[in-house]
Design brief:
single chain; about 375 residues; alpha+beta; Muramoyl-pentapeptide Carboxypeptidase, domain 2; two-stranded antiparallel sheet; 15 helices; about 45% helix; elongated
Length: about 375
Amino acid sequence: MSPDPELSPRRAARAEAERLATAALTITPAADAPTRRQLRAESGLAAEQEGSGIRALLAVRGLTLAARRRRAGVLAAAMLIVVAGAVAIGAAASAGGAGPVAESADVDASTLVAGPPAVPDEGLPVPQIAAVAATATPCDDPAFTAALASGDDAAAIAAAGGGSAFRAAVAAGVAPCVSLSDPNREWVVVNKQRPLDPLDYRAGDLVMPQNVRALEESSLRSAPASALTELVRAASDAGAGEIGYLSAFRSYATQQSTYAGRVDVGGVEEADRESARAGYSEHQTGLAVDIVPCDGSCGTLDDIASSSQGAWVRDHAWEYGFITRYAEGRESVSGYLPEAWHQRYIGRELARAYHEGGYTTLEEFFGLPAAPTY
């Protein structure tokens, strides 16, 4: 007779493990669950055959004793997991100090395990977005725009906060209402990449400077003409000597002739380093003047750099609104060989900012690209 599997050592060990796993649970048998004695009576088998008979009845009833035990084990394990999770969450909430879990003892395990976090009574926090102030621009100032509209450059610069503030705004690109291409403005920038518009532009309000020796009939716009008169007088009063000038405003036609003469002497490449083509010349703006030293008679353009007049101009011209436009060693930016004689009027406030900032080209002063070639 083969041994009953229910009574084998392996089966006995597994039954003992299941018993220990479910020891903490009280399982009430179903009302219709048969006892071992009832199963034996119903089977009509002898005691030595009760194992196989009972298994047969359980198979008929659809559930073996082992299946019942396994189901009890699974249920016990599930309950242990739920209880352990609840304990862990409660411990974490207690350690954190505050919160819905720590404050309420009535929260059940299912809420702790799977439920969403409770919403505070005051509601969820609202994100705070800091306001960012718009970049300040002089173009938003009615006083500045009114001065621009009236053509009063000095008043516009004053409304912007002075020469340094004006320059900073323009160089930073936050003053779109200011045009560096307008030839009527004292701050216009003309170079090999920035022609006049129109090319044959002719400056207005041209006058001859008063009490300044002119070697040819050549005028300036009103503001630089008055400033040149003051500069010449101040240089004389300081003992630097007399300052005259050779050329100031040149028309488009005159500049054509001047440039062509340079080409005839040294060719196009050399002429472009020394003279502007018509439509690209600062002299057409009426804001530039070529000065010479005078002592009885007047010297040449080349004489100004080494003269006492030239030294005084280098130190003081900015006080009267002038800058030396083409400085030593700046050809790669300005496009021209140094010209100590070429004084460009940009107004007193801008000239002060130019001097105090240590600038040597208008391109850098206004944050513009270099213009060494056409």
